[in-house]
Amino acid sequence: MKIILVLASLLSAQMASAEVIADNSFLVEEAYNQEPGVVQFISVFNKPVKGTDWTYTLINEIPIGDETHQFSYELPYSSIEASDEKGLEDIKFNYRQEFFRSDKIVTTGRVSLTTPTGNDEKGFGKAAMGYEASLITSVNITDKWVQHWNLGAGITPDAKNTAGEKADNSKYFWAVSNVYLFADNLNFMLEFAGSEEEETTGAKAAVYGSQVVMSPSVRYAFNVGDWQFVPGVAFPMGVTSNAGDNEVLLYLSIEGKMF
Predict the structure, then answer these.
(1) β-bridge partners, 176
(2) Residues 6+ positions from 13 with CB-CB distance below 8 Å
(3) Tens digit of pLDDT for each residue in 83-130?
(4) Is 11 helix (H, G, I), strand (E, B) or coil?
(5) Is pLDDT at 4 greater than 90 in this prediction?
(6) In Å, how far are 16, 32, 149, 152 from 99, measured between CA atoms?
(7) How far, in Å, CA of 33 to CA of 71, rounded?
(8) φ/ψ of residue 91, rounded to 5
(9) Cys-Cys crosslink for 31: which of 51, 98, 113, 138, Cβ 3.0 to 4.6 Å?
(10) Is residue 20 predicted with pLDDT exceeding 80?
(11) Using one digit for the tens of pLDDT, what is the confidence trace for 99-108?
């Protein structure tokens, strides 16, 4: 009983001292840019429940001056069971600008450039530059409920498939995250993400594929000095028949003042 009381006291103290989480959802972008001088490192590991495929992505978010502007890059590394290959995929660079901020709503725009760093012959990239834009809005519905909305589109001209055939690939995507603030440092989330995306099927030929994914998740924040750590876990599952296998997603955010 004494041990339980001690643990409860420590947890209560930690929850009282931790700052409110203003992090990223796992499948959905939140509209909050990094504060001046505060740099964030995000690790995302996801794996289907069945099979041995997996993907690890490292994301680094860096503020440019104040919270209005932010730069980030994404380094994805994957393992493909069918070909028994592992490799770096196409690297993505992002610029975000905050357009509007009030006590209830924050709206941010993002433009992205994907570079052909992956080996397209092994299925790790499209051997072409990709372009993307999205609008991100975060809304405080109540003191305990926050929503985040994403809407965007992209195009990759002359995207290659593994056979070396080229075609323009377009995509459209949306996402929404519902975050319940159980405590300042403990959030429960329910995310939905959908997309319509083309894949090259032949020379100058591409076919759209669509999917909708639902993902329940939880994240917890704790502070170590001036740094905040936010581990989390999610369970993305396909809502549509062609959305792919159910997955497990592991998340870790580390952010702190660096300049």
Answers:
(1) 149, 192
(2) none
(3) 889 999 999 999 999 999 999 999 999 999 999 999 998 989 999 999
(4) helix
(5) no
(6) 32, 11, 15, 16
(7) 9
(8) -80, 140
(9) 138
(10) no
(11) 999 999 999 9
**pLDDT at residue 217 is higher than 90:** yes
Instruction: Report the distance separating Cα 222 and Cα 231, nearest Å.
Output: 9
Structure tokens that stand for 225 in this block: 């000095």
28 lies in which domain range?
A: 2-257
Compute how many other C-beta atoms are within 10 angstroms of the C-beta atom of residue 256.
Answer: 16
**CA dist., res. 30 & res. 177, Å (int):** 9
Report the CATH number at residue 121. 2.40.160.40
Count the domains in the chain: 1
Tokens read off for 5: 């009381």
Residue 11 has pLDDT above 60, yes or no: no
The 3-state DSSP class for residue 241 equals coil
Q: What is the 3-state secondary structure (H, E, C) of 199-227?
A: EEEECCEEEEEEEEEEEEEEEECEEECCE
Q: Which two tokens stand for residue 203?
A: 């020379």
